[in-house]
Request: fold
Amino acid sequence: MSLRINDVAPDFTAETTQGPIRFHEFIGDNWVVLFSHPKDFTPVCTTELGAVATLEQQFANRGVKVIGLSVDKVSDHSKWAEDIKDVSGADVTFPIIGDFDLKVAKLYDMLPGDEGDSCEGRTPANNAPVRTVFIIGPDKKIKLTLAYPMTTGRNFDEIIRVLDSMLLTSKFPVATPANWKVGEDVIITGAVSNDDAAVKFPGYKTVKPYLRTTAQPK
Reply:
């Protein structure tokens, strides 16, 4: 069954570069970014893990945990981390899940169930669909999915932008328009009447009867 937004993120136990985890316990009361990779020692993925390593403090400042997954053994991940530091200049201090038996890739519908049960002998091309980003909320529900081809590195600045939107809209009855960035005007949701909007968002603008904008709430 494919996973959709607002589905509960499947729980699992796994070995990681920082020891064993139960995923829902790892999430706790936090927002989490889970991003997956088809194989260790692949060029695009090396740059991606390096990018996240350099941005990890930005995620932490937002109360967001990051965790990677790659279809290989944890022992390989630890060796790969040395290359990632050489390329990016940053240490990988977040955990990377070892998915040598393809369990998590299948659980998250990134590989079909009949793909075997071992990473041995598999190539990045075999595992091409394992290139997904999941953002999961404190309620353990999936809030976003993004799937990328192997030849396109992920834009983690965009993922941070989406997180900023989600964190804001989880606190206030607003939505964010196309290409929104922190500090720009936002949209008042349809659940707020005009009378309530005048109280909550004084001076709001009516662009169309269904499109009302206001300064970003603090």
